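[SOLVED] Need 3D model of a two-part complex

Original post:
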Amino acid sequence: MKKEEEYAIEVQDVYKTFDVYLDKANSLKEKMLFWKRNRKEVREVLKGINLNIKKGEAVALIGVNGSGKSTLLKLMTKIIYPNKGKIITHGKLTSLLELGAGFHADFSGRENIYFNASIFGLTKKEIDNRLEQIIEFSELKDYIDNPVRTYSSGMFMRLAFAVAINVDADILLVDEILSVGDQHFQAKCIDKMKELRNEGKTMVFVTHSLGSAKELCDRAVWLSNGVIKMDGDTNTVVERYIEETK
Amino acid sequence: MGFFKGLYDYRELLKTSISKDIRGKYKNSILGIFWSFLNPLLQIAVYALVFPLLMRGSTVENYTVFICCGLIPWTFFSTAISRTSFTIIENGNIVKKVYFPREILPISVVTSEAINFVISTIIIIAFVLGYGIGLSKYIIFYPIVLLVQYFLLIGISFIVSSVTVYFRDLQHFIGIALQLLFYATPIVYAPGQIPESFQWIIQYNPMTYIINAFRDIFYYQQMPDFVSLGVVLAISIALCFIGYFIFHKLQKKFAEEM
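Solution:
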């Protein structure tokens, strides 16, 4: 019998600091010659975050620039690691930190679907099964076999989003990318997200668009200066947030 | 065990990176293949012309074939190492944005170079046939020697690819080190041709035994020295473990260092 975990993401007392070098010695030569030069400032970005996200929850991370939202999301993705504390995730996780990371301009849209989806950990068979769905969602039709460098930025974004959203992960981490494409495509993205939420996927959004936060999430977490300032029902948190940051 | 699971889960990524790499090299089919064969052939031609002059005729029999059997495996070794030294930095855009097992990057470089090496082996075979040496039954040991070299390279590539992220200028150092190592390996000369006082250099060099084994198979047509190869294999596997340990420690800050 498989043990059912209640939480999808557990963040336990996480601290993250970045060393900000004012003049970084990037090479061995510089490190040896100018060993005094490494003046650095230690910037504490997250100071003791505790956050449990249940399976099937849709959570919005809100806060002003520099409050640590994106850092927290990157930690959940395991692109960076905390200095202290632990982050445990249960289930297949996909993050949309930047659309089209790893696209190759000279390859066709179709080839890039394969390459991009494989970065997300899909096998050939899984990609084959989703191919039609991805192409349809991207609305690229006949352009799909043209090299990606011939695409407009809107087409590029649509393809990238179509791949990422069809990866079929249990946990979806999204960083401020809902501003993709025109009104029509944005609405389509929101619909797709809602659909995934209703399927019971766990989602974490970093967003400045409080409207879409209210629309998609039932819970909001307000980060301020690296600590959680408020955590609760989206409407309540967003209202307080607007009031205080006015 | 997490290492193998990660590789298995992301096997499609490993496959696409390798095939992308190889297709990139042999793109525009005929011309691509032409260039990738011309380069080693020219190198062999240069060494075959210059060294007999320098050594005043005291070279081995069928010297061109002799060089060829050493130079092709060496090219595999040196290209794989110099390419892994910047593979993480080169793929910085995805390393910073997407999670995937980072060890896929050096492994795919070494693997695609291994496939290139297998393709280049056609050159060796063409030379031994062309010079009338012929092929021997010992060719069945070719995959074993290749595997030993593969493990050696995987171990080195873990260390080289992760350390260069922190010390960028190490790439230049590696280039120079590879040039020195070229002369410290019996490629253009036979092991017996160098003075006694320098023998220790080639004796401590694992590539010596790998190149000797390839020569045994194709040039001398005799049984490779499996005792030495076994020692090299043991060292290579140990290096894989040490290399993976270092890589695993260093990869946690890759995204921040770029």
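Edit: Chain A touches chain B at residues 18, 26-29, 31, 74, 77-81, 93, 95, 97-98, 101-102, 104, 107, 114-115, 117-124, 127 (CB under 8 Å).
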